[in-house]
Amino acid sequence: MRPGFHHSEPKIMRIPAVIIIAFLACSPLIAHSGATAEPPAETAVPAAADSDSSSALAGAWEWFDKGGPIMYPIALISLVGLAFVIERIVALRRNHLVPKDLQNLLEERIRAGDIGGAVEVCDQVPSSLGRVMRSALERRAGTIEEMERAAEATGSRELWRMQRNIRPVGVVGNIAPLLGLLGTVFGMIGAFQTLSEGQAVGNPSAFAHDIYMALLTTFFGLSIAIPMVICFHWLRGKAETRISEIEEITGDLLLRIHHPEPTPDREEDA
After folding, report:
1. Which of 71, 199, 250, 253 is the most exposed place for a label (fewest CB within 10 A)?
2. Which domain holds residue 122?
């Protein structure tokens, strides 16, 4: 059996998810604040909180609108990726996959020699740990090696289930910069078209607009891709940690079945 971590996940592991989600939500506003900072003296008076918020949102929308049509698919895949990140954070909770109550009940049934009761407990508490243990207990008539092989096969399927909805996060992380690059190429084509038609002569703003659009799509694409790639690897590690915990718990319980601990009654008889 592959060794795992027989302890609860540190709370600090939850921090990256909060940071990433906040970054995804705030990156357009951060970009706007950096680009629209103007030093006129008359704006030094603090404005009301609601006007600041509406101004920031309006500026973010202005950036989004100036990015061109490529901004819409970038925004769409960012929402899809964020939805999958939140779903996996909830689904990969330890209490959902490796319930402590189930572990305690299995230990009680196995210590009492009630293997049939242990199987019933696995059915009553649906979880990854329950499914892995049930597959092993179904081979209880065989050797411990056969039980371990059954648990490993089920554990592999459980790992696939855990990582199934992590793959879209990686896909978004790969596609977002490509869409940003596509927007950059689109903007550069427009810029050189403007230059070739002579419209930029005496009017550099006409040329700069297309360059501006090209840089915006690149920025937004990378702003989505970077946190998504981080989320992808973090969630994969989280899933592998859960499987390691399940395998360690299963291995300990199987050893107790084939090498039961002496009960007080047996010690008195001895």
Report:
1. 199
2. 14-19+70-259
> Which sign does the torsion angle of CA 243, 249, 251, 254 carry?
negative
Indicate the Cα dihedral angle 174, 176, 182, 186, nearest 10°: -170
pLDDT band at residue 215 using 50, 70 and 90 as cut-offs: confident
Q: For the chain, how many structural domains are there in total?
A: 1
Task: Read off the pLDDT of residues 17-40 as tens digits, 9 standing for 90 and up.
Answer: 444 444 444 444 444 444 443 444
Helices (H), the chain: 15-35, 49-66, 71-91, 94-97, 100-111, 115-124, 128-137, 144-164, 167-196, 204-258, 264-269
> Which among 14, 18, 159, 165 is positioned nearest to 97, based on CA atoms?
159
Q: 173: Cβ–Cβ under 8 A, 6 or more apart, which residues?
A: 81, 224, 225, 226, 228, 229, 231, 232
Q: What's the mean per-residue pLDDT of the chain? A: 77
Question: Of residues 58 and 173, which shows the higher confidence score?
Answer: 173
In this prediction the pTM is 0.70
CA distances to 9, 75, 147, 149, 236 from 25, in Å: 26, 11, 47, 45, 22
Q: Is residue 7 part of a domain?
A: no
Cα-trace Rg, the chain: 28
88 neighbors 236 (Cβ within 8 angstroms): no
Instruction: Write down the residue that tokens 């550069």 correspond to.
Output: 188
One-letter identity of residue 59: G
Burial environment of residue 258 by CB neighbours within 10 A (0 to 12, 13 to 18, 19 or more): exposed
Q: Is residue 98 part of a domain?
A: yes
Tallying the residues shown for the chain, one arrives at: 270
